[in-house]
Design a protein that fits this description.
There is one protein chain. The protein is mainly alpha-helical. The chain has a single domain (9-110), classed as Helix Hairpins. The chain is 89% helix and 0% strand. The chain has two helices and no strands. Helix 1 runs antiparallel to helix 2. The radius of gyration is 34 Å and the shape is rod-shaped. Belongs to the FliJ family. One of its GO terms (cellular component) is bacterial-type flagellum.
């Protein structure tokens, strides 16, 4: 029996390795997104605590410093929101690239499956022809006796 040889095997291997690379990139972006989200929550919580539990100051300068601190937190939260949005965009881009890589690999795998089915069908036909030839040969040998 012949051995199955898929003509696009190297392409399939490339698509598989490319998909693995995209999975790694996606997981890195996902981790980055969660880190940015965590940092935003920390900043928001810090601001919330500062507002809910303001220290007791005796001097006006202390109040001014406290409000500058709150203003600084607001700006940090705003920047962190921007960083989170950028991380979300990169995550979505990585997700789309992974989906495309998975589809590309899947297409080649389906071609391989179809080629293998055709190969098995052809092998079955060859085997049937060979059996028919043996049967005919046996029949003809029996007729001659």
């Amino acid at each position: 029996m012949d051995k199955f040889n898929f003509k696009l095997q190297k392409v399939l291997e490339f698509k598989e390795s490319y998909e693995e690379k995209k999975k790694e990139e996606f997981s890195i972006e996902l981790i980055n997104y969660y880190e940015q989200e965590k940092r935003l929550k920390e900043l928001t919580e810090e601001r919330k605590k500062a507002i809910n539990n303001p220290p007791k100051f005796k001097m006006i300068f202390d109040y001014q410093g406290f409000y500058r601190y709150l203003d600084l937190l607001e700006k940090r939260i705003e920047r962190q929101n921007q960083a989170l949005n950028q991380a979300k965009e990169r995550l979505e881009k990585a997700r789309q690239e992974l989906i495309k890589a998975t589809k590309d690999r899947s297409i080649i795998e389906k071609l391989k499956e179809k080629a293998y089915e055709e190969f098995l069908e052809e092998q079955s036909k060859k085997e049937q022809r060979l059996n028919d030839d043996y049967a005919l040969y046996s029949y003809l040998r029996g007729e001659r006796r």
